[in-house]
Each structure stands twice: as C-alpha cells, then as structure tokens.
C-alpha cells in the first residue's frame, strides 16, 4: 500500500501527483524548475505581460507610446514654459490645477492600459468536450460534408431575447455583452472596444478608468489650450505678437497639438457619456442592438431605467477581480486549455504536461 | 449499489475520476453571476436533490451579495477613486472578501456533504465563473492502482495527466 501523499520522497521511487498538495516530483532540486512557471507565461491569448505578470497589455503597443509621448511632451512644455509666466502674472493656482489634472490623466491612462479588461479564461478540455456533446445532442447527428449550423443559445433577459454565441477559439458560450477581440484573441466581458491609443481592450474591469481618462484628458487639453492662448495674448500686449511667439515657441507646438486633439477627445467623451447614461457598450451601439430602428419592442434590457443609476453603476459599481490569475503558479495536475491551432483538444493538455515532465 | 463513505483526502488518493458534471450559468436575470439550479441527471443516484439545490442557491446568494449595488458599494467606489485606487494596496474589495467566503463555504460543503458521497465541487472562480464543476468519483476496489479508469473522453485528460506521474 503506497504511503500517503505527504510521505517522504526517499521512500518511494515515484510519488503520486493526483493530490492537490504541492508535493514535488522525484528529486528536490528539480522543484524550482517546475514550480517556477506562472500562468501568464502560458497564457493562450495575444497579450504582453510585464513585471512578472502584474501588467497586461495588447501585443501592439506602438500607438500607446505615441499617446504617452504626446501627453508628456505637451504637459512638460506647458509646465516648463507657460506656467512660470502665468503663475506670476495671473495666479499660482494654474500650475497646481494643471498638475492635478496631469497626474489624474496619467494615473487613469496607466490603469486602463495595464489592467485586465475582463478577459474570460478559455474552457478546460473537460468543459469543452461536455459542451460539444450537448451541442451535438441539440443539433442531432449532422450528416458529414456540410457545415453544421452556427452554435447559438437564446436567453430571455428582462423580456428581451438575447442570443449567446459559441466562441470557437475559447470554446465557451459567450456571456451576454461579452465579445471576442480578434486583436488580443480573447473573449472579454462587457466588451466595449479595442483601443490602440491605450494599448488594451476596454471591457468590464477597466471601462471606468478609460472613461475617466478621456474625461480628464478633455479637461487637460482644454485647460492647456486656453492658458497657452492667454499666455500668448498677454505677451503680445507687452511685446507684440511675433515677438511673443519668438519668446515662447513651445506655446505654438502646444497650441497645435491641443487644437487637433480637442475635437476628437471631447467628442469621444461626449459619446461615452451618452453610452454610460444609457448603459450600452460601443459594440452594441455600433451594431444597433438596442435601437428603436430594429423594432418597436426593442429596448435595452441592461439599463436600470434612469440615467443617474446607470452612471453610478458604471463608475462606482463593484469591480470583479481578474479571472485569469496571471501570477498563480501552474499546478502540474491541472488541465490547461488547449491551443486552438490543434484541432484535437486532448493533445494540447497532454503536451503542456509532458513538457513539464520532460523538463527534468 | 452502496458507495463507501470517503473523507476528502482518501477521495483524491484512492478513488478515480469517473466523470464531471458542469452546472452552467443562468443568464435570465442579466449579466449577474447566477448558476442554474436544474438538477443534473448524472447526480440522481449520488445526492439528494434538495441538498444540491440548497448548495447552488446559497452560492447564488453569495454572488448576489458580492455584486450588490447600493450605498456601501458606491461608497467603496468613490473612496477608491478619491485615493486613486491606492487604497486597494492595503485592503481588499468587497467582492474579494465575498469570494473568500465562498471558497470557505465550498471547502466546508465538500468536507461535510459532497466528499462522503464521492463528489467534489470545484470553486467556479477557478473556471472563470462559467461553471460549477462537480467531479464524480468511483470507488476503486483495489488500492494503489490509479490508472485512468474513465471510459468517457472527458475524464481522461485530467486522470491521464495524473496517471502519467504515478506509473
């Protein structure tokens, strides 16, 4: 009779790994090699991870760096060249308010870009097989040679019929309002859109940070634009317009950047304010899922009825924790979700486990 | 067929996984986290319907509490925003507190109710809140043999993975 799961390793040639305790495999010095891998290292989506899994972004981050540079350079020039003059001439409150706005913008931007938007982990092989079985039973045995009908389930939410689609990549039925982002290759809960400026998807967990980012950025842009114009006007009154421009050339650059950004950013803030107050996602609005044009009986089943509640829930509601557990360690006996490129679901699970075994 | 009473440790060691049942989410109330209370036929001979339903209803109650929108959740949200979310470095959110309660409850239910009947509940948070996974174990008459005894395809991946290390 083999000893219990916690028995000393020297006594048995092999030890059972079916228990959930973290009892190591054959030799003690191999433990570090196998236990070192965290879940983010084998994450199946197209994401980049930094700081050992604490930071999560999309794969293409070039535009995000552009956003950062634009904000940092414009604000930096404002604080360096315009603020000294304005603080003396008008009030020192200007750089203070500007500073607060700037930190708020940077904080919300980084929070939006670095957090998990609400990614749904892919189905384990057991779940996927169980779902496939249920779908086959529902469809009946299909004759080979033609493509089976698309897999959908219908639910009634608050009186509206909502279709849940089956995601072939993640092998799950997507919850309502979830959508699969093709850029990140993940299903995201309450998917709003993929924002290249922020370098991440915008979904359930980071929508409020995104909204506060664009709102505070609108204020910051308008603020900088207004005070740069004020600065140039005040200087022109003393030394003439062209001399004023020569004395502070940075103001010209800031004014140009702000002028071109203000339209799009303020417009975007207005649009998202409308979305929040009617509790819709960008995805739903673009598709016109709940618009009256589809039919008189069509209404948004997720709305709470009044604008105030919708806003409160979107901005101050509870935040669910991340479901993908990026920094957890991979347990040797846990089945990993299979990669979609292999048609066979079992092979993926066996391969990741055999990788660990042969790693010794 | 009378099943032997197991405790949780024995279950993992000497019993082998026969199949898994998945309780899916119930979306009829919207996107809040609720699970279907429909009794799966595979558990018919294993556990009383009432006990099962009670467990799922209690879990649903916990999730509703976690996602409850009201004064305290608004207060938490506003306080967090005012401190630029640094407050979450020190304290955990209400949702996380309730999730910890849930995993304690599941552990307790496994020990008292499910393991003696040869069943094991997996915390939904480990499955992305999509399903409640119930593993059904069969008794092994001969001790020490833990080959993958499952005949259906669904159980073989995890049992096969466990079996690969032991032989």
UniProtKB/TrEMBL annotation, chain A:
Keyword Membrane recorded: yes
EC number from the UniProt entry: 2.3.1.225
Entry membrane topology: Multi-pass membrane protein
Transmembrane segments: 63-81, 93-110, 209-233, 253-277
GO cellular component: endoplasmic reticulum; Golgi apparatus; membrane
Lineage: superkingdom: Eukaryota
A biological process term (GO) from this entry: protein targeting to membrane
Main location: membrane
PROSITE patterns reported for this sequence: DHHC (PS50216)
Record GO terms (molecular function): protein-cysteine S-palmitoyltransferase activity
Protein's cellular compartments: Membrane
Domain Palmitoyltransferase DHHC: 163-287
Keywords tagged on the record: Acyltransferase, Membrane, Transferase, Transmembrane, Transmembrane helix
InterPro entries linked: Palmitoyltrfase_DHHC, PFA4/ZDH16/20/ERF2-like
Catalysed conversion reaction: L-cysteinyl-[protein] + hexadecanoyl-CoA = S-hexadecanoyl-L-cysteinyl-[protein] + CoA
Domain-level remarks: The DHHC domain is required for palmitoyltransferase activity.
Family from the record: Belongs to the DHHC palmitoyltransferase family.
Name of the protein in question: Palmitoyltransferase
Annotated source species: Octodon degus (Degu)
Gene that this sequence comes from: Zdhhc14
UniProtKB/TrEMBL annotation, chain B:
Biased composition (Gly residues): 158-167
Protein name, per record: Golgin subfamily A member 7B isoform X2
Keyword check for Transport: no
One of the GO biological process terms: protein targeting to membrane
Location within or outside the cell: Golgi apparatus membrane
Major localisation: Golgi
Lineage, highest ranks first: Eukaryota, Metazoa, Chordata, Craniata, Vertebrata
Region of interest (Disordered), residue spans: 140-167
Database matches in InterPro entries: Golgin_A_7/ERF4, Ras_palmitoyltransferase
A GO cellular component entry from the record: Golgi membrane
